[in-house]
UniProtKB/TrEMBL annotation:
The name this protein goes by in its record: CMP/dCMP-type deaminase domain-containing protein
Alphabetical list of Gene3D superfamilies matching this protein: Cytidine Deaminase, domain 2
SUPFAM superfamilies: Cytidine deaminase-like
Keyword Zinc appears in the UniProt entry: yes
Listed Pfam families: dCMP_cyt_deam_1
Protein species of origin: Desulfosarcina alkanivorans
Organism superkingdom: Bacteria
Length: 262
């Protein structure tokens, strides 16, 4: 509208009687309430529609469906199958064994952590374990290291014990290998089992206890004095897989909880 027209219509409005002004106001309100279709409105609706389409794509990208989980497992399984132990990394052979156990845990629906027990004198793996916390039913004690030690101790008992029939504690020649730094529960079990040597593929900065040994109760700290627990010397590829397997389950659990909370 031209400035002259604006001034003229304003002057015209001022001259109108109050009754007519009221009629114009009611008519204007009625027009605005009826929301006639304009280019602006169309554009607004189109924007909302596009935003909804974009959001639907975003939600599809979140890995929560069973089908998507199966696809992610296949991808990580293919990576594990391609892994080779690097002779330059002295713990790679056992690192590979425990990540394979961690993969088996994921496939079963539990946490992505694996463990094994090695006889240092022969280099042979004498027991294997993995996280079985969620399948076939919930067992809060069945972390990978706990599962491993329970299986080993049961096996020793069936065998009739090793050195003595009464105390089945492991000898100094055993090395426990875990794909992730043990938590407080597992660490005290490892100490109690008499395992003097233990290595883990990746540290767990928020849940690991080996890096916090100085915070153990005095009794356990004393018992762990002659123990050698450290991070394994594994290749970056094996460390990466161990990390991805560990976070795979954590992320799935976190997403599940988030979805349930909504
Ligand atoms: Zn644990």
């Amino acid at each position: 509208m031209h400035l002259f027209d604006i001034v003229r219509s304003r002057a015209h409005w001022e001259r109108l009687p109050a009754a007519k002004k009221k009629i114009h106001r009611v008519a204007a309100e009625s027009r605005s309430n009826s929301q006639p279709t304009t280019i602006g409105n169309c554009f607004g609706r189109l924007s909302i529609l596009l935003a909804l389409v974009w959001l639907s794509f975003c939600f599809q990208a979140v890995p929560v469906s069973g089908q998507d989980k199966a696809h992610r497992i296949k991808k990580i399984e293919a990576r594990v199958q391609r892994l080779q132990a690097d002779p330059a990394c002295r713990d790679d052979v056992y690192g590979l064994i425990v990540v394979k156990q961690a993969l088996a845990s994921i496939k079963e629906g539990s946490g992505g952590i694996g463990a094994c027990l090695v006889d240092e004198t022969t280099g042979k793996v004498i027991a294997m374990g993995r996280n079985r916390q969620y399948k076939p039913w919930f067992r809060s004690d069945l972390h990978a290291e706990m599962d491993l030690l329970t299986r080993y101790e049961d096996w020793m008992r069936k065998k009739g014990g090793r050195e003595t029939a009464k105390d089945l504690r492991a000898g100094p020649h055993l090395i426990l290998v875990s794909s992730v730094e043990p938590c407080p529960m597992c660490l005290t079990r490892i100490i109690n089992a008499g395992i003097k040597k233990m290595v883990y593929v990746i540290p767990d900065e928020t849940g690991g206890m080996v890096s916090r040994m100085d915070q153990l109760p005095p009794f356990w700290k004393k018992r762990a004095l002659r123990c050698n627990y450290r991070q394994a010397a594994c290749s970056p590829e094996i460390q990466q897989i161990a990390n991805d397997l560990f976070n795979f389950s954590m992320r799935t659990w976190g997403l599940k909880k988030k979805m349930e909370a909504q």
